[in-house]
Automatic annotation (TrEMBL):
GO terms for biological process: DNA transposition. This is IS5 family transposase. InterPro entries: IS402-like_dom, Transposase_11. Residues 134-274 form the Transposase IS4-like domain. It comes from Acidithiobacillus ferrooxidans. Residues 12-95 form the Insertion element IS402-like domain. Pfam families: DDE_Tnp_1, DUF4096. PANTHER family: PHP DOMAIN PROTEIN (PTHR30007), TRANSPOSASE (PTHR30007:SF0). One of its GO terms (molecular function) is DNA binding. Signal peptide: none annotated.
Amino acid sequence: MGKARVEAWEVSEEFWKRVAPLIPQRAPRPVQREYVRKPGGGRKPKDSRLVFEAIVYVLRTGCQWKALPRERFGSASAVHKRFLEWERGGFFLALWQAGLAEYDDLEGIAWRWQSVEGAMMKAPLAQEATGPNPMDRGKKNGSKRHLLVDGRGVPLSLIVTGANRHDVSQLEAVLDAIMVKRPTPPQRRHKHLCADAGYTGASALQTIEAHGYIPHVKGRGQEVTEIRLLPHKRARRWIVEVAHSWFNRFRKLLVRYEKLERSFLVLNHLAAAIIAVRKVPLDINIIYG
């Protein structure tokens, strides 16, 4: 008999060992003097691992929170309540930072060639960080994920804005929001930033150079032509496009249904954490799927 299929949202023991220490501790409820709860009264708190797996399930499948399979995860409202608690506690950001730290320790962040780009998605129900979507004739709300990645596509920085915010206007914010601080490289040629033609212009080049990068701002056609003429050169900007496609495999991020910016942002943080941890060079399955 072949191996039983493992679903994309199932969390391995190895990954859970990395997650568990970062789970925010719930504050004990204050005991009121006029009423003391009977021993054993009330519901037992939902298991943290089950909650985390439910959140990954939502992220992977794109289902509504209230559509979580009750037979597997129990009360959907209890899961969403814990999600909001963990969001306020900074858990998802801490998980991304921990994933990057482990990736840096065991593989080494590929600092030399970084890439930046924005990608739009529809946001029909969102109430924050939205704007007319230029890709949808400006008729409907959309959001944009601005992403900075290392040379292997691992996310280093991420912000969310309205779809109508130009990439250049958010470039400084993306470069300032990097999750880990790199030691100053010994030579300037050890720090390059690749971007597409949307970042053309004096303002973008000034921002890139002010952050210590050598700019490589080129359209796709220009890059292809240069590689054809100079075979020793490598195409590098495409890696950020691949990274955006990795995010879109988490179907909750493909179309934004989260109303609040902070909830959508932390789901992106969780996806970034999973991407970073899966790049750790260990002979184990960190997370399936």
